[in-house]
Amino acid sequence: MDWKKEFKELMFSDSSTLDDIDKAFVVKQNNMPKALYKYRSFDKEGWSLKNLENDTVWLSLPEDFNDPYDCSFCINIDGLVSGKNQVQYLVDELGFDISPDVITKINLLPDPLDAFLNLFLEGESNKEEKVEVIKNLIAKRDLMLKEKFNKTLKSTSKVTCFSENHLSILMWSHYADYHKGFCIEYDMSKQSEKDLFSRLTYPVIYGDELYDATSTIKKINDGKAFLGMQLPTLMKSSEWKYEREWRLIAPFNIMAANNTFKTPVPIRVYLGARIDSNDEIKIRNICDRKGIKVVKVRISPDEFRLTEHHS
To answer: At residue 262, what are phi and psi to the nearest 5 degrees?
Structure first.
């Protein structure tokens, strides 16, 4: 079995136990890369340099990320909303003058929604138009609920991203200001499964389908704690697979707003091939004080490849 699939099933299945979760952490730790890399650009506020100086990373809300599908999931509203609730929703939206006693009797039937529609459409000459109105109302409600659930996750999880690859041409372009930024290397071989930085860092799982969170939300609504709602923060489209991404995630509002998180002391910093000389001096000064090695990245003149130049 692919180790990520094993990790996912142990960690996030509906039936996961505490023992399963402990096993999942072991599986993850056994497959942790020796190093993880953080691409950085120089921002006006100087946060990237402050993070390097203070051994921290900045955790952001997924709603601010460049991928509109980041931390998204799908749900089957029919699997969450009972016929009883659907009846009340339609009564409220359509403004029917139906007594509470009638609604109570309808809700006692095996299919309250079907019973309500039969009552509502009885003797109607424009039955098809009425059905279309109801379908549009339900579709509107469904979309509203889906957007609400997705927005809640994206506004409560705090995430920062790493990669297994420090010489990706695309990632230097996308996340390090077109090769004018830098990349920080963290030694993960010295991190145990109990270290908080390692424990909260997970592999991104790539695929072609959104995570179906219907059963997970049911469990949450039933008052059962479940890690399944963390899974969408780790799932991305296969089109992003080249990033070989890992994520540090602080879920469910355990941190106030966007914030910093303590990291191990970096072991290397890679300077972009187009880094400004003044920015390079700033990086080297910090690294000299902290005893961090500095490596210059160069663009190969003969092929599509980045190379390291140790100085």
So the answer is: -70, 135
3-state class of 50 per DSSP?
Answer: helix
Instruction: Return per-residue pLDDT of the chain as tens, 311 residues.
Output: 699 999 999 998 878 888 999 999 999 999 999 999 999 999 988 899 999 999 999 998 888 888 888 888 888 876 666 666 777 777 777 677 777 888 888 888 888 777 777 777 776 777 777 777 777 877 887 888 788 888 888 877 889 999 999 999 999 999 999 999 999 999 999 888 778 899 999 999 999 999 888 887 777 666 665 677 788 899 999 999 999 999 999 865 565 555 889 999 999 999 999 999 999 999 999 999 999 999 999 999 999 999 998 86
Side chain identity, residue 243: E
- How many CA within 13 A on the CB side of residue 31? 16
pTM: 0.83
State how far the alpha carbon of 78 is from the alpha carbons of 131, 135, 215, in Å.
17, 13, 12
The full length of the chain comes to: 311
b/e per residue 146-168 (b: at least 16 CB within 10 A): beebbeebbebbbbbbbbbbbeb
**Residue 53 Cα distances to 49, 227, 253, 310, angstroms:** 6, 34, 26, 21
Task: Indicate if the alpha-carbon torsion angle 219, 221, 227, 232 is positive or negative.
Answer: positive
From the centroid of its chain, how far is CA 222? 24
